């Protein structure tokens, strides 16, 4: 559990958990800098979150997302984003992962073009994890990061010109950082407001490293997650402009790539690029979060229920349209169109199964490069050579912005088309297992968990969780319940039976977070039975770490 916050007024307005333990990161200057970010931008953040709730209420009432009439001039205009810096021209293979020291070293040494250091979906946001991640990245940028494992194996960085380019992903606008409180007052009950987790992650990283990275012509560079609108993108632009001014950096020095991983954002890709046009270098098909967002946004639309997640591949028409529209939009505006994650990991004890998994990765990467993507993601270093081989063969230049994909015509209906498929008993039970196992590990401090030879993070677990909720609540309001492919009714009794039997199925398996499985089961049970879908699994779970 988190440490109790003790009032600390090292910098006016800031309270920290155990300030002495983080004095090397959060000195007086850093605290004052972060406090000012909070005071300046928290009202606008809250306004954006309120607008999300307003729009979702409309979708729940029967409306569907669509392209905005008030921004048609932006979509029709002939404009381009600022030039892509040299360090980000070739991004054909990017590796992603959490920010613990071993991962940072291995990712930077991996041979990938870029490493997305992730404070978001693959990092459980314990205070220890966040602080260790900031320290590891600072040391990596200084070239001093080393790590020795329990078995004595030593990890060290390769020379700087052999390392992947660092891109940092902060947490999304919807998350708070409960260990940093700002401006206690009577209206707060004597305690401060929680700081935005997004502003904390990005702000502290910039305070510690922006000057050093700018001197090396390496950014700083960021991936921005979970955006839903151009207004949210514009808020990020204001934040980054303010940080550049405060740190004495040239305007536009800090470059960003935005993940298009929410359904509403897919209807505002031009607008998001335009809002960040002085610093954005690309958009990314964050496919797993996008599927999660599709379910969540259309949760009240029974005619948009998705089949089990193994059948929701990028060949589904709504996902194919999303990918092609992203490529067309980016290339028209002079930005990179990044592909999505290959979640597979090597299967060491089954050669045939491993070959089948690698064949799926190869087919996925071939689809991406053929469609016109300028790069792709992998979750494991062993997949880098395969992904690079596919992109090298089909993309001899650093990118494919010359492929305009003018022939692509995507309508709002195309982005929403229902998917064909089934819900099998195995698929239902796998969703329950993934939710429980991932949540148990997350509560135990591990946000990136291998389950059945897939690297699960918060996004993939969210697909499983929201599917379970939607399948069970499809009968709300007197509708006919959904059925498994074998004819079994999908109802709370089925869910409860699967959940009850899960501990015996997991018994004896060396799973991460085993000591918190019962807590994970209780939380999943509560959230799934609830009449209203919880917006993010990590919101209630965060209060338990």
TrEMBL record:
Residue ranges of every copy of the Malate synthase N-terminal domain listed in the record: 23-71
Gene Ontology biological-process entries: glyoxylate cycle; tricarboxylic acid cycle
Reactions listed under catalytic activity: glyoxylate + acetyl-CoA + H2O = (S)-malate + CoA + H(+)
Domain Malate synthase C-terminal: 423-545
A Gene Ontology term for the protein's cellular component: cytoplasm
A Pfam family of this chain: MS_TIM-barrel
Swiss-Prot/TrEMBL keywords: Acyltransferase, Glyoxylate bypass, Transferase, Tricarboxylic acid cycle
Broadest EC class assigned to this enzyme: transferase
Boundaries of every Malate synthase TIM barrel domain copy: 165-416
Keyword Lipid biosynthesis: no
EC number of the protein: 2.3.3.9
InterPro entries with a match to the protein in the record: Malate_synth_C_sf, Malate_synth_sf, Malate_synthA, Malate_synthase_TIM, MS_C, MS_N, MS_N_TIM-barrel_dom
GO MF, one example: malate synthase activity
Presence of keyword Membrane: no
Active site positions: 169, 457
NCBIfam families xref list: malate_syn_A
Family affiliation: Belongs to the malate synthase family.
Protein name: malate synthase
Organism: Luteimonas viscosa
